[in-house]
Amino acid sequence: MIIFQKKLNNMRCPKNILIPTIIGVFLMVFSINVEGQSTSGIGNDKIILSKGNSAVVQFDKGIAQLGGIKNFVKKGQKIVIKPAMSWDQIPGNKINTSPELVEHIINLCYEAKARQVVVFDHTVDQWTKCYKNSGIERVAKDARARVMPANDERYYTTVFLEEPSILKSVKIHQSILEADVVINLSVLKRHAKINMSAGISNLMGCAWDWDFYNSEINSCLAEFLYYTKPSINVIECFQQDMLLENVGSDIQIIATDIVAADVVAAELCGQNPLLIDYIQIANKLNFGNSIVEDRKLIIK
């Protein structure tokens, strides 16, 4: 399936108000949400840095500062949780999203009367091993989420947009296109090519065709936000990846502003956000605000 989308007057199209065109001999109208998942809860520009003795405690403290999960998840909505589970690693290695955090957020979404919760990731390592050994597949299924594969091109739809300068088209996982709300759960890691991996780069796991990232990786990472912009961004920051002294514990960043969340994550791992190109490009494209100093709220 191939979809063209055109923005109206540079405004985000509401859900199901799109102008799609299929390459072929006829036109069809699709009830599909390409770039504007629910913005419920958007507007609170705080960046929460939450401490606690578990990922669940950290999240509960943080999301409460943003009005609670019901500020984002409404009755009857389809929720997609995009965790970091790209690696064939067990939870204790703190490489992937904490499975207990995924399970907890699924439960919170159903308590908020979500119609369905979907969990998936396009993994780097062999996908069945990542899903199993990360612990995420089991807890997600136990919590009644639908765990979707992402290992085959048939799960993706090609979308074209006019606005990006580089990333004019991308094959996006169908679950993202059908979502009312996307919750982005990433893990802070240092990265040789882009300096750091966190919230924005975690969205690579929503796309099939990674080849386009090779030559223009920073522009493509930023411009993918034309295609999906999560309502909630959570970055788990483990001590092993933070370079600041006296942090004292793991930290969870929770924010609606994905650019600001990545700026704070960069600071925590000793990086200068001004030198991380994809953050600066996303900031210039107005996908968030890189000025964070008066917006950070530390919850202990």
Give a short summary of the structure.
The chain contains nine helices and 13 strands.
Please provide a written account of the structure.
The chain is α/β, with parallel strands linked by helices. The chain is built from nine helices and 13 strands. The protein has an eight-stranded mixed β-sheet, with helices on both faces. It has a three-stranded mixed β-sheet with strand order 1-6-7. Strands 9-10 form a two-stranded antiparallel sheet. The longest helix has 13 residues, at 99-111.
List the helices and strands and how they pair.
Blueprint (H helix, E strand, L loop, with lengths): L1 E4 L41 E4 L4 H11 L12 E5 L16 H13 L4 E4 L7 H7 L2 H7 L3 E2 L8 E6 L7 E5 H5 L2 E7 L1 E3 L3 E3 L1 H4 L14 H7 L8 E6 L13 E5 L2 H11 L8 H8 L11 E4 L1
Parallel strand pairs: 1-6, 2-13, 3-4, 3-8, 4-5, 8-11
Antiparallel strand pairs: 2-12, 6-7, 9-10, 11-12
Helix-and-strand structural type: alpha/beta
Strand order of the largest sheet: 5-4-3-8-11-12-2-13
Give the amount of beta strand, in percent: 15-25%
> Quick check: average pLDDT?
85
Main pleated-sheet profile: 8 strands, mixed
Helix content: 10-25%
Number of helices: 9
Uncertain segments are 4-36, 39-43
